Amino acid sequence: MDRIPILKLGGALIVTIQVDMHDRLALALEEDLTAMIARTGARGVLIEISALEIVDSFIGRMLVSIAAVSRVLDAETVVAGMRPAVAITLVELGLELTGIKTALNVERGMALIQARLSDEDDGHGSDRDRHED
Amino acid sequence: MDRIPILKLGGALIVTIQVDMHDRLALALEEDLTAMIARTGARGVLIEISALEIVDSFIGRMLVSIAAVSRVLDAETVVAGMRPAVAITLVELGLELTGIKTALNVERGMALIQARLSDEDDGHGSDRDRHED
Question: Exposed site from B13, B34, B116, B129, fewest CB < 10 Å?
Fold first, then answer.
């Protein structure tokens, strides 16, 4: 497997992390996501990590990097489905997922992204977004 | 990886196939999907296979089997994202995906499932569903 599939759904891109991430795969994912945000104008990136038993500093950096690049392209990154044990480890290690929102599951994560989209449809999105940051 | 994550979104369950399927993984996926349909009352199962370069008879049987079990539990199975080369091979091999609808991508697949859901909300779903079969 040399590419992780990216699913487009409405204004969001959904990625499920299922395999062990290595350097090249992480880079490819970031590139693919960036290209797809640019092509589709997606406003949200949802990364589902329920299959991950470990989120180490490598994965953490990858997520933060994806979020940073997506933000520049005006898309918000939401990580969904983190296992409780992973959350505990993240806090214990002091790893901070800067610029990333988390959601308990995909449904809530999509709700976050949809809320942003509908805020913008109402024409006062930029104001509200600021409050959330 | 011993389990493929299943994402619940609205009335649908979404599965992305990213890894090589083997016997045990296919069985586990079928069991997990069945349990999740029963638990969540999902009415559609969307299987995204854009990462698959080959759909052989093993994968074909797995998809057909998932669709058959889901149908008994009143959920419709849609396969999305099939590569053109895979489609050609399927036809050449004479593999039939009985009971499975296909969609070009996740967005269209979800639209198929949503159409079924909203038909049922209108109170005349069962009639319309028959026409499609």
Answer: B129
